[in-house]
Amino acid sequence: MENYYNLLYREDEWELIPICKQDGVMLMPYSPLAGGHLARPTWNSSSKRSQVDTSARSKYDYAEQQDLPIIKRVAELASSHQVKMSQIALVWRWAKGGTAPIVGTTKERYLDDAAQTTEIRLTPEEVAYLDEPYTAHEIVGALDSNPVGLLPKDVK
């Protein structure tokens, strides 16, 4: 199951992830770095992607104030572990289970950073520290209902 899941968007924890685990369905989450928000201590960036990626803006900008406390905690743990924020976000993903997060990289060194996460460990307390400030988000990145007109006429 390719699902949208990261520290800033965890709505799949309530239903999708438990049912996939129950039925033995592999999870392969995309956007583990939340469009780059989990890779820097500030919300905005001067990167080209930040300037042109309207999809990421539509998924994240509405919840900026809600998500900044999480980003702050990622930055704190990255500093204490002496690693990159992106690595803490990926290690959190490993700690939550799942198989292979889809890491969209634009530079070779980002692949190296991702590979190094296999050597980083978070304690259960650190995972809980990252989890704690999350609050429910509006559903984005997926359909929350079937669009009108796309169902066969005989299905009600």
TrEMBL record:
Under the heading SUPFAM superfamilies, the entry gives: NAD(P)-linked oxidoreductase
The protein here is known as Aldo keto reductase family oxidoreductase
NADP-dependent oxidoreductase domain boundaries: 2-132
Could you list this entry's UniProt keywords, alphabetically sorted.
Oxidoreductase
Q: Which residues form the signal peptide?
A: none
Q: Which domain of life is it from?
A: Bacteria
Instruction: Please tell me whether the keyword Oxidoreductase is annotated for this protein.
Output: yes
| One Pfam family it belongs to | Aldo_ket_red
